[in-house]
Amino acid sequence: MVPDRKQHISILFGLGFFCSLLLNPCASLAATLLNSEVGISIHPRTLIDALKQGSGYSTFLPTLLDNDQAWVIKDSAEPQCRSGIQYLCKGDWHAAAGKFSLTLSRNPKNAVAYEYRAIARAFTALYEGKDVTKQLDPHVTYEEVIGQQALSDASSAISLHPQCGILYRNRGVMHESFSKADLATSDLEKAVRLAPKDVRCRASLAARYSNLQRVQEQISECTAALSIQPQSSLILWTRGEGYLSAGKYAQSIKDLNDSLKLEPFYLTYFIRGTDMLALGQRQKAMSDFNRAIAMNPAHAKSYDTRGCLYFVQNQLQRAANDHTMAIKLDPTNMIFWLNRAHAYFEMGRFTEALADENQCIRLQPKYWRSYNTRAQIFERLGKINMAIRDADTALSLNPRAYEAYRTRASAEMSIGDFEQAIVDTHHSRELEAALAGQPPDSEIISGQIVHSELSDLAHQSVAESKRMFHLPARRDIEQAIAGFSKVISINGRAVEPYYDRALMYFSLDQPDKAREDLKCFLARSPRNESFVLATLFISLFSRHSKGNPQAWPTADLSGVEQIATNSPFLKALVKFQKNEVTVPKVLQAAGQKMEDQARAHYFIGMHEQLAGKEALAAKEFRWVIEHGDPVLDEYLLSASALKLLK
Fold it and tell me: How far is CA 301 from CA 31, 273, 289, 467, in A?
């Protein structure tokens, strides 16, 4: 998410003015404007009105310069310059700029006049820049004209004092305000080189790195600033936000807790709530989002993120209500529409979900996730060709979007194209495995939570798929085998297809081919969940093999039990195969996760079938057919086994 120009100018007149007064009673306003990447939206008038309260400008404006330097004292003493500063403190930009211009007409080397006229002009650009009555050139806005004049004044001040770090800091934030990103970074980095112990320079550079998503550098600058001024709620907040972006949630929470001790603030609660959500501490996350909303009922992203939390708690109407409130506060934020579409989808309100997705695409035509979700909606509405088209578009925009492969596979399966569905399913699995452990999408990093980051949306098409999916005949299993073979021929390093094809061969009573595929799988597979399952099937089939059990690979159940330590379900399955636990214990360990339940019933069914207990086996396979997800292999295999038993 790229902040707009007004947000950048807000950073200038929040962070720029306030970073030097980190313990000031108004420091929370600085925090508000510190980093637009987390969704701060403070109207400029709010900032200006806040500054007018109490000592306002008279306190903050002089902090843009180092008032103890001789040239600052000398330049500020000129009568017209002093008068300009007084007007600036009252918020009269035009009168202030006039006084500074008069000063410069008499003394063109007054750097203070240049710097403060730059500030006056930048405020004017912020506050009046959209006034078309002041636009002299139809091709150039008034804001652009005044902004360029502000930058010119800032450059003049630097030319008079080229070794003054704070002047580079001020111009750097102005460059960012007027979308000159490279120049902004250059100026802010030079400011830190010239003034390495100036907290203002380091804090501004940290904010710049945050906008660039250069998280480690953001954290480093904040750490350096805290070594100079450790009791700063603002810098603690900024570093906490950086740790969140880096996925270091515990460190983020510590910084945010320290910041809250110094000063309670709604954005601190919002960021801490996002940390808690990432850690799965939903109750604490809800508490923080509620506090953020109570402190600032106009913060749209607090509503939206709380809506995401309601979503994963299956409180769908509450989720939709919060997303609706977020949309009312900021109708230009595409993520809010996307999240409400997900809520409507889960509620079965497909027409409303489709309308929201269409709005997402109007707001941001190149966002792949919108097309992926709309594809799922089209599938539910029976518009399969349109679903596949949207999934194709999503993949063209993001070829590594494994969710889109999964969506397309579901649509292909619904029209009986099993071979292509299997190819897409395995592309999805391989990409998901390759991306495991990598940082989350930018929505999370930027504080933009989308439901698909919190809950697997694949289950959304289950009910419709069950309705359209027919129990497979032998040719369907053969077609599935052809699909796995195609994946293997396309990708010589493929691993999972050997395991899946082996199970298909078992369903066709071809154990020799199954055995060879399992050997290939075990030789290539990392020691993960699939390795455990493959070992369990080897143990199961070798135990009941009609031929020579010695031909099967060795099934090291004790070894895989150690691998399965982090999964109570897999551990229970291994113990079941070792005759150490009963069927009820396995089903209890499967919990509420549909995939684990389906695997449990399928494995138990195969165990009973190979033991000659066909009635019990049929009962287990029937459970998978009635309750399982047709996207899972267990569904297909159970259906096949059930037909064979019949």
Answer: 16, 12, 9, 38
Q: 173 near 188, Cβ under 8 Å?
A: yes
**Domain residue spans of the chain:** 366-435+460-467
Average pLDDT over residues 186-196: 93
| Higher per-residue pLDDT: 23 or 87 | 87
For residue 489, what are the CA distances in angstroms to 497, 524, 641? Answer: 10, 15, 27
Q: Contact at 8 Å (CB) between 44 and 127?
A: yes
- Spell out the residues 6+ positions from residue 566 whose beta carbon is closer than 8 angstroms to its own: none
At residue 640's C-alpha, the angle toward residues 632 and 596, to 5°, is 30
* Average pLDDT score over residue span 16-22: 29
Secondary structure class of 264 (helix, strand, coil): coil
- CB under 8 Å to 563, separation ≥6 — which residues? 527, 528, 531, 532
Within its chain, how far is the Cα of 423 from the centroid? Answer: 28
CATH architecture of 366-435+460-467: Alpha Horseshoe (1.25)
Asked if residue 603 lies in contact with residue 573, where contact means CB atoms within 8 angstroms, the answer is yes
Q: Of 477, 472, 555, which is closest to residue 510 (Cα–Cα)?
A: 477
CB 120 within 8 A of CB 100: yes
640, amino acid identity: S
User: Quick check: 300 and 277 in contact, CB under 8 A?
Assistant: no
Residue 491: what pLDDT? 61
What's the distance, CA 154 to chain centroid?
37
Report yes or no: 458 and 465 within 8 Å, Cβ to Cβ: no
Cα(142)–Cα(584) distance, integer angstroms: 74
| Residue 35 tokens, joined | 């980093």
User: What distance in Å separates the CA atoms of residue 347 and residue 326, rounded to the nearest whole number?
Assistant: 19
Question: What's the CA gap between 187 and 190, in Å, rounded?
Answer: 5
pLDDT digits (tens, 9 = 90+) for 248-287: 999 999 999 999 998 888 889 999 998 898 888 889 999 9
Residue by residue, DSSP assigns 406-424 as HHHHHHHHHTT-HHHHHHH
DSSP string, 508-557: TT-HHHHHHHHHHHHHH--SSHHHHHHHHHHHHHHHT-SS-GGGSPP--H
Could you tell me which residue, 6 or 331, shows the higher pLDDT?
331
Type of residue at 308: C
Q: Which of 416, 347, 348, 410 is nearest to 376 (CA)?
A: 410
The pLDDT tens digits of the residues spanning 101-126 come to 999 999 999 999 998 898 888 878 76
Mean pLDDT along residues 491-519: 76
33: phi then psi, degrees, rounded to nearest 5:
-100, 5
CA distance 459 to 249: 28
Task: Report pTM.
Answer: 0.60
> What pLDDT does residue 637 have?
61
Per the CB < 8 A criterion, the answer to whether 221 and 197 are in contact is no
pLDDT at position 8 over 50? no
Q: What is the CA radius of gyration of the chain?
A: 31
Residues linked to residue 140 through DSSP beta bridges, in sequence order: 137
| Residues 6 or more apart in contact with residue 327 via CB below 8 angstroms | 333, 336, 337, 340
- In contact, 316 and 297? CB cutoff 8 Å: no
Q: Which residues contact 227 (CB under 8 A, 6 or more apart)?
A: none
